[in-house]
Amino acid sequence: MQRIHHLVISLFAATSLASACQKNTETQSEPPSDTAMGQTQPTMDETTPPETPPEDMSGQQPGEGDQAGTTKPEQKPLAETDRRFVETAARDGMSEVELGKLALEKAKKQSVKDFAQMMVDDHGKANEELMGLAQTKGMDATQMKMDTGSPEMAPMMEKRGQLEKLTGTKFEKQYVSMMVDDHEKAVALFREQSTNGTDPQLKEWAAKTLPKLEEHLAHAQALKAGKTYKPKSAPQASADPGTKPAKAATASK
Fold this sequence. Notes:
Layout: H1 2-29, H2 44-47, H3 80-106, H4 110-136, H5 141-144, H6 154-164, H7 168-196, H8 200-224, H9 246-251
Helix pairs in contact: 3-4, 3-6, 3-7, 4-8, 7-8
């Protein structure tokens, strides 16, 4: 009986020792916890800052301002023939305005003064339109050399000098003769551009302006011939050329 008792005690001791050894082994194999030694292990989000795309010199993030429609297309330069048309038409128009102002001061006949005022008004308006259109094509007044002191404006200044020496009827005849010559050249210039121009907008503008220049030419020709100018659009006395005047019909009765 006593032997059995010792055997049981031995088995119990062996079991306890084995359990203690296994527990010690498990404790040593476990990784240290985040709270070991009172410190918290940093996580990936806390140690690695998020990457930010580099900024360019303007301070914009790459891709900003590259949306479709924000970049203006490069202006296509005018063909040489179109550029020459703009320059010539602008300077000629300025010449008509300046000489018209001089005629308003020196002319005596009302018909010549009325024509000069038309030159100032019509060519002044046409110049503004052409300047606005030219700016959309990348040109400006400097490029068109419209300064009265530039060599390109020398012909106008020469005409002005000639007219300033004249007075009365001599002035009026010389001014009107100049206007005939100038508008013959202008009509030819605008007709060529309206037919063979390369730039569609300039071509359209020349075609729109041409009838007014033709009217100016006809008006100047009438003044030069000593006749009263009658616009083509003026209403006729009778729509039917076969209709007799009222007085003639009365006389026949």
